[in-house]
Amino acid sequence: MVDKNPYTGGVQTFDNFLEKDGLQKILNGFNNDQVWGFTGTSDKGSDISSRFWCANNLEEYEVFKKLWELIQTNCSLYKYKLTRCYANGQTACQSGTPHTDDGDLTVLFYPSEWKHIYGGHLHFIKNNRIGHVVEYIQNRLVIFPAHLLHYAGAPIKEYDGIRISVAFKLKEVNE
Asked: Structural domains in the chain?
């Protein structure tokens, strides 16, 4: 069952995107198949350096291919082609920095078990201020235009896990 919230500034969220077993398959994909590297950065165009964990080339793994197919079908994204898929992982005090994304549309999926007090929410910047915040909620899908300035806030210092966001970068197909 997908709970759809209305657009807010070009940002759309879908809660409870996957059934329980589908969510577990995604989490298992990280436990069994992925090697995290401390190679992530979101500092392009920023005067602040930001480093975090990253798992690249997820589009090569069957579980993430199936997730993309489900997203494309359930969100009617047929006019978009997947150009790449990866995951960012943030541990305590690892904040992103404001940036825009490549491509035309960004889709984020949040698989980590989470409590609102952990922080780690998605911030959209407008007129040099936070214009909109999307709370990190497990099993939430977020879709937004890639040109929107945004960043993921840091989990609080007391958090001892990893905040994972699976990113799908999409390009509009002109047919």
From this structure: 3-172 (2.60.120.620)
